[in-house]
Specification:
With 298 residues, the chain is an alpha/beta fold. Helices cover 35% and strands 18% of the residues. The protein has eleven helices and ten strands. Helix 4 crosses helix 8.
C-alpha cells in the first residue's frame, strides 16, 4: 500500500486505502462535509455518507474525529452521519472543557435537530459514548437506539490511563515522522497504514514544518464519567434499546464490573464482545464492528 504524501492531504482521497486494507468489495459512496451553527456563530461539523436520509449517527471518542469511522461507514454501505464533537476535527473550539459531556450533548442535539427528521440509532465511542448517554437521556425524541462502543459510565481515570497518557502527550511534533512514531508506539493493535491515515485526518502541519493535533487541548483531563452528572442514572432511564460493544483485547476501558452494572441497571441491554480489539474498535476491527451494528440496528 502506497504512503500518502502528508503535504498533499485530501480528506476525501484516502477511502480507497480503507477499502484495500480491509478487503472490502464496495463502491465508495459520495461523502460531503457540512457545518452547522450550534451556539451563536460557533459551528459543529461532520460528514454525510451516501445519498438519501441518514440511517444512523456516529460519535467518535476524545481527541479523535469523524474520520475514525471511515472503514465502518464503508463496510455498512448505508447513508449515515459522522459528527465531529465540539473542539474536535473541523468543529469550532468550544468555550467549555474538551471533555464536557453535558455541553457537548447539547451542541450535538442542536445539530441533529437540523440534520434528521426522525429518531435514529445513536452510536458513540468512548467520550462520544458518554455524550450519547446524555444526549439520548435528555433528548429521547432524537434516538431510536443507543450503542456504546467500549465505554460505560463506570469508566475511571485509572481504567483509561493508557488512553489519556497518549492524548495528554506533547502539544507539537517536529515533523510527520515524529508524530507517526509516537502514535504507532501507543497503538500496538493497529496497522501503521491505518494510523498514518488517522494522523492525516487528525493533525495539521504548521508553516515551520511542525505538526499539531486538530483537537482542542485544555488542561489534562482523564477520561471518566464527569462529577456531578449521574450518567448511570441517565442510562438507567433510557427507554430505547441499549447495546454495549465491548473490546475483548488489551486496552479496553470496560471491565467485568462495568458490564455487570450495565446489566443490573438495564436488564434488557445487549452486550457484544469483539475479540482481539483494543479500545478503538472502529480502528482495530472495523468490519466486525460494522457487522455488529448491522445485526443490532437493522
Amino acid at each position: 500500500m502506497r504512503d500518502v504524501d502528508p503535504l498533499n492531504y485530501d480528506e476525501f482521497g484516502l477511502f480507497g486505502e480503507n477499502v484495500e486494507e480491509f478487503g472490502l468489495e464496495v463502491e465508495i459512496p459520495p461523502v460531503t462535509r457540512f457545518h452547522l451553527a450550534v451556539d451563536g456563530l460557533r459551528q459543529l461539523s461532520g460528514l454525510r455518507w451516501g445519498e438519501g436520509e441518514p440511517e444512523l449517527v456516529l460519535l467518535h471518542g476524545g481527541a479523535q474525529n469523524a474520520h475514525t469511522f471511515d472503514t465502518v461507514a464503508l463496510a455498512l454501505g448505508r447513508p449515515l452521519l459522522a459528527l465531529d464533537l465540539p473542539g474536535h476535527g473541523h468543529s469550532d473550539p468550544t468555550p467549555y472543557p474538551p471533555a464536557d459531556v453535558a455541553h457537548h450533548a447539547r451542541d450535538l442535539a442542536t445539530a441533529l435537530e437540523a440534520l434528521i427528521d426522525r429518531p435514529l440509532p445513536i452510536v458513540g465511542m468512548s467520550l462520544g459514548g458518554l455524550c450519547a448517554v446524555e444526549l439520548v437521556a435528555t433528548r429521547p425524541e432524537l434516538a431510536r437506539a443507543l450503542v456504546l462502543i467500549d465505554v460505560t459510565p463506570g469508566v475511571t481515570a485509572a481504567k483509561a490511563r493508557h488512553v489519556t497518557d497518549f492524548v495528554n502527550g506533547p502539544a507539537s511534533f517536529s515533523d510527520f515522522e515524529e508524530i507517526l512514531a509516537r502514535t504507532v508506539a501507543h497503538h500496538p493493535t493497529r496497522s501503521v497504514s491505518s494510523l498514518r491515515r488517522g494522523i492525516l485526518h487528525n493533525a495539521l502541519r504548521r508553516e515551520d514544518g511542525s505538526w499539531v493535533w486538530r483537537h482542542q487541548r485544555g488542561e489534562p483531563r482523564p477520561l471518566e464519567a464527569p462529577a456531578g452528572l449521574d450518567l448511570w442514572g441517565r442510562l438507567e432511564a433510557v427507554r430505547v434499546p441499549v447495546t454495549l460493544v465491548r473490546a475483548m483485547g488489551p486496552g479496553s476501558v470496560v471491565d467485568d464490573a462495568d458490564e455487570a452494572e450495565l446489566r443490573r441497571r438495564v436488564p434488557e441491554a445487549t452486550v457484544v464482545g469483539v475479540e482481539e480489539s483494543g479500545h478503538s474498535i472502529q480502528g482495530d476491527r472495523p468490519v466486525e464492528l460494522a457487522a455488529v451494528l448491522e445485526r443490532s440496528l437493522f
